[in-house]
Amino acid sequence: MKRTRRQFIKLSAATGGALALGTRLTTLFAETSMKPLRILILGGTGFIGPYQVRYALSRGHKVTTFNRGKTHPGELPKEVEQLIGDRNGKLDALKNRQWDVAIDNPTTLPAWVRDAAQVLKGNVDRYVLISTISVYADPPPSGLDEDSPLQKYDGPDPYNETLEAMKAGGYKTYGPLKALSEKEAEKWFPGKTLIIRPGLIVGPRDETDRFTYWPARIGRGGEVLAPGTPNDPLQFIDARDLAEWTIRMVENREKGIYNATGPIKPLGIGEMLEEIKAALNSNATFTWLPYEFLKKHDVQSWSDMPVWAGDELGLARTKINRAIGKGLTFRPLADTTRDTLAWFKSLPQDRQSHLKAGLSPEREAEVLSAWKKEKHS
Questions:
Q1: pLDDT computed for residue 71 by the predictor
Q2: Which of 19, 49, 221, 367 is most buried, judged by most C-beta within 10 A?
Q3: How many independent structural domains does the chain possess?
Q4: pTM above 0.85?
């Protein structure tokens, strides 16, 4: 089954100046006498969670995680208090405890927020929900901001939704359910809620290969199928940048809604591919295939050509001014590229042979061959 842009986000570096700013901010916080926070992270062992945990610990905070204990068990530092439970009704471990803030990473269903809030209300001072830009209705060509219209849920009772039903429906309700989860958070923690809407999250530990395909493919060298035009815009954020900024926002007691994607300056896919090539010292060459040709040959944006938005370019123009104003920074794309590829190459060989996004070598060669035949016919 081909995945749409919204579905693929679910399976959801700028300049040296920005990096220097991040260093100055970290130094500034480290030098202050900020009181350590008691941070509860719902999840904490998936993609962004471990980065949040380690960054928070490095800044002197006390961290508790709550999850099923099934994802990467035993991986977290010993300083972390680990509570075992399940968002589906098994929340006893959260009862009669106090934290300064709860960071909710995995919530997809509004019932998860409601049930956790009923236990945590009065026991946490603030609530952070990691949402998604998939909550937005179809983006205009000029891009989205935090006040853009959201998707509407038109199914049965959303509080009876399950992950299994959402998956069976092709993730069509993912964005609307996330939007309802945001409202649920604001309902239970009025004036105390921080909602962060990331775009495509990339980097080491990304099991969906949403960005990993490009370093892996360009690293192999040779002729590489490149989609659309070099100027087609795109956006993404390294999971580590997102995690670290989230902790800094918590430290500053921020609230409200923020889009969180990057980089800080507009980026075209051509520039991204060339920067990846340079970071890896690759001999890759790029053959650019037009959108209409790719569409005719059933090559999909986001899934077959990760990061690229295809004809939904407004999505890749999401406005991040509000987050930038609150200190969101970005590491260089070269760092994300090399770190992602190093992580990927540390995986078992069988896993490396089965990328979860992008074209297989055989399929890429087939499409490139069809393009050359069409050009010379």
A1: 84
A2: 49
A3: 1
A4: yes
